[in-house]
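step=encode ok
step=design start
structure_in=
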């Protein structure tokens, strides 16, 4: 039975862009094999279940073939089976919809699109106040 290093497999299966990013994910506890956090040097085999946490979603894959050389995107269905649950994808979609609300403090100014969305959100509640007369002159 053939085995492969988990960091090489994650890179070869195009789950991470570079092998060093895959190794860092393993070191930081974002990769599990059969439910256990692993080091980058952990050997995986066919049938293992791999969990990858890419905030806010945890993707799960079942290994169909162990490889250490990167393959084309068309060959990925032969390499792994994506067993990620639908609720994880719903969580990802909700995060995309919320957009600017989850911006970390200090990551920069809102974009023009963000400002327009905030104005649209706040704007309707202030309608009707333009007609009020705030002239407080004493006319006695």
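sequence_out=
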């Amino acid at each position: 039975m053939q085995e492969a290093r988990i960091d090489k497999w994650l890179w070869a299966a195009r789950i991470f862009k570079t092998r060093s990013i895959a190794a860092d994910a393993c070191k930081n506890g974002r990769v599990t094999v059969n439910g256990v956090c692993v080091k980058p040097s952990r050997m995986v085999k066919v049938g293992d279940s791999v969990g990858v946490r890419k905030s806010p979603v945890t993707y799960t894959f079942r290994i169909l073939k162990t490889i250490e050389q990167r393959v084309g995107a068309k060959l990925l269905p032969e390499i792994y089976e994506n067993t990620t649950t639908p609720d994880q994808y719903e969580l990802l979609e909700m995060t995309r919809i919320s957009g600017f609300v989850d911006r970390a403090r200090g990551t920069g100014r809102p974009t023009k699109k963000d400002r327009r969305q905030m104005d649209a959100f706040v704007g309707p509640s202030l309608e009707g106040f333009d007609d009020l007369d705030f002239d407080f002159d004493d006319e006695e």
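step=design ok
step=annotate ok -> The first strand starts at residue 3 and ends at 5.
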